[in-house]
């Protein structure tokens, strides 16, 4: 993580908010803190909050950069706030949003990890289970991942960047509960195209990082996905059929493109 980005955020947050970097993506950096944004000045040793910061991008024109950062930050916050209203869906709670500085604070989901055993997202979880990839725990977790995606699509939302790093696992009642995160490219959408693309992106992510076990993994995810639509009678069946048909079309397009190089 560049020192420049750290300096920027420390200047903005002031030293009263200590931060620990946990991830750096193309667009944002993610930190952990134990200070709540409405209670700055006090720190609670056991509290954990996520700060997601979108630093200015030097390669963009400054005014376009400011507009884009504000747009993505607001859009992620809005969609998180909307999705939190849906009881069947698991997303982290939004705590605060500062679109002008490209910063959001959200609930940290790894807090119940037994002594921080080193993974919080689905990608790391699958790596950790790679020596016993077909165990019942993995199956159960991936079916639940599929159910979360099914719920999202059933409610007519799309994720826009559905990779295995954008699913966080939280330990609840002795089981892993998947939460969808990173909604910067998410939207309300009734389009089967958007849903087909979500499913395709996730399928590719699983194939490219866990290729030996990908068939089983993808099958379990799709099992959970179908479960959700199956609970909604004829309407659910029709929507599922349309979505799966488009998923297949997106897949074919992807294959054609990779053949052309
Ligand atoms: N609320 C959260 N709780 C726990 N871990 C999180 C949370 N949000 C993000 N992370 C971790 O940080 C990583 C990056 O977060 P993300 O929001 O996807 O940002 P990016 O834009 O960099 O992809 C995730 O893959 C996950 O490991
Ligand atoms: Mg991400």
Would you write up a description of this structure?
There is one protein chain. The chain is α+β, with helices and mostly antiparallel strands. It has two domains: about 5-105, Phosphorylase Kinase, domain 1 (2-Layer Sandwich), CATH 3.30.200.20; about 115-260, Transferase(Phosphotransferase) domain 1 (Transferase(Phosphotransferase), domain 1), CATH 1.10.510.10. The chain contains seven helices and nine strands; from the N terminus they run αβββαββααββββααα. The chain has a five-stranded antiparallel beta sheet, with helices on one face. Strands 6-9 form a two-stranded antiparallel sheet. Adenosine-5'-diphosphate binds near residues 22 and 165.
Main sheet: which strands, in order across?
1-2-3-5-4
Total discrete domains? 2
Number of strands: 9
- CATH homologous superfamily annotation of the largest domain: Transferase(Phosphotransferase) domain 1
Number of helices: 7
- Average pLDDT for all residues: 93
Q: Mind telling me the CATH class of the largest domain?
A: Mainly Alpha
The description of the largest β-sheet is: 5 strands, antiparallel
- Write the CATH fold name of the largest domain: Transferase(Phosphotransferase), domain 1
Could you tell me how far the N terminus lies from the C terminus, measured between alpha carbons in angstroms?
A: 33 Å
